[in-house]
Structure formats: C-alpha cells, structure tokens
C-alpha cells in the first residue's frame, strides 16, 4: 500500500506561485489608461502641428541634439549651459527664417534671400531680381508678427519636450508643474489661431516651396 506524503515545503512553494507579483500595488483602471493614452497622443499631435509652422531643419536639429546636450534631461552646469545655448540658437533661427523668402531664376533654380525694406537681398548673389519684382518681397509689419509668433511656437515645442523640463525644472512644485503643462498648450492654440487668421505668403529657408 502506497502512502503519498505531500511535503510542507512543496505546498508553500505552490501557494507562493499562485500569488500575484504586484500584490498591493494599485493598478490604473481601463478608463485612466485611456485618458493617459489620449493625453499623450494629443501632446504628440500638438507638437507635430506646431512643428509645421517652423523651419524643418531647425526643428530637426533641435530634436536631434537636445538629448545629447541635455544628457537626457540630467543636466549639470555644463550641459545646462549647452542646452540653453541650443534653445537660444534654434529660437534665433526660427526668428530670422521668418524674414527669408525664395524665388526661381531664369533656369527655374530656387534662390533664397532676406527680405529688406527695399526688396529682397539674395544670399549667394548668384541671381538678380528686377526692382519691380523685388518690391513684392519688401518687409511688412506682418513679417515681424510672424517672427514673434515663431519664437512663441518654438518655446511651446521646447516646453513640450521632457528633456527641457527635466533640465531646467528638475523638481517643480505643484503650481509650477501645472503651469508647465498648460502654458505650451495655450501658446500653441493662440499662435495657431494667429497663423490661421494671418497666414504667411513667404517661402523661406526651411519652409515648403510653392509651385511657382
């Protein structure tokens, strides 16, 4: 006659295997996960929409160099200065790009220049533009308005980036965190409305070209 003896150690081991690994840890329910996913998705959509209003090369360089300069948001005195310099240079690039425009020469080559109060100053000087045509490229008040809005848009994109926030505000207070969350959204909505009401007609450096 065989007698089966179940060891006490084996019983404990079996019971331990049945216990959940994250026992006692509050897991977010399905509704909370959906809200978080929607917020993250909306943030990426807002950033992508705002990036369309700025020079492509500037935004690409900013997103490429920022993780390196900021050390993934873990900034010391050196990386903090480098990150601040990168933000300043990219903001200046967005500002100056608002005063650039382009045209096609006789060979249908695209030439870029800076808009002035007299017309368009061609950067490389390889092509000339008739004075009566250059008058269409003169600086206007709307150009300065677009330049200011470009800086605001870039500031919103920078604040959307977690590396920038972690670098300059590693331990924000509750009120500061609320401001850092709401401010870029407000700037993005405000500037998007202004760009919609006052669209730019220039096709400068880093912006899409027109068919003509």
Low-confidence residue ranges = 1-26
Number of strands: 3
**Number of continuous helical runs:** 8
How many angstroms separate the termini? 99 Å
Content-based structural category: mainly alpha
Nearest-integer average pLDDT: 76
Major β-sheet, in short? 3 strands, antiparallel
Which H/E pattern describes the elements? Answer: HHHHEEEHHHH
What would you note in describing this structure?
- The chain has 212 residues and is mainly alpha-helical.
- The chain has 2 domains: 52-99 and 141-202, no CATH class; 100-138, no CATH class.
- It has helices at 8-18, 30-51, 56-69, 77-97, 131-134, 141-160, 162-168, 174-197, and strands at 100-104, 110-115, 120-122.
- The chain has a 3-stranded antiparallel sheet, with no helix packed on it.
- β2 (110-115) and β3 form a beta hairpin.
- Residues 1-26 have low confidence and may be disordered.
């Amino acid at each position: 006659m065989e007698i089966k003896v179940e060891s006490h150690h084996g019983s404990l081991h079996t019971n331990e295997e049945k216990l959940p690994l994250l026992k006692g840890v509050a897991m977010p329910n399905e509704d909370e996960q959906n809200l978080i996913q929607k917020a993250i998705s909306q943030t990426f959509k807002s950033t992508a929409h705002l990036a369309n209003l700025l020079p492509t090369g500037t935004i690409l360089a900013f997103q490429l160099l920022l993780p390196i300069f900021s050390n993934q948001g873990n900034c010391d005195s050196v990386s903090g200065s480098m990150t601040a310099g990168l933000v300043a240079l990219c903001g200046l690039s967005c500002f100056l790009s608002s005063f650039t425009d382009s045209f096609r020469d006789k060979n249908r080559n695209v030439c870029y220049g800076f808009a002035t109060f007299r017309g368009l100053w061609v950067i490389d000087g390889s092509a000339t533009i008739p004075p009566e045509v250059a008058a269409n490229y003169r600086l206007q008040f709307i150009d300065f308005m677009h330049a200011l809005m470009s800086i605001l848009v870039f500031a919103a994109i920078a604040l959307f980036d977690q590396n920038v926030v972690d670098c300059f505000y590693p331990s924000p207070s509750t009120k500061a965190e609320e401001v850092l969350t709401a401010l870029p959204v407000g700037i993005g909505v405000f500037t998007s409305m202004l760009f919609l009401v006052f669209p730019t007609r220039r096709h400068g450096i880093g912006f899409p070209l027109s068919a003509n």
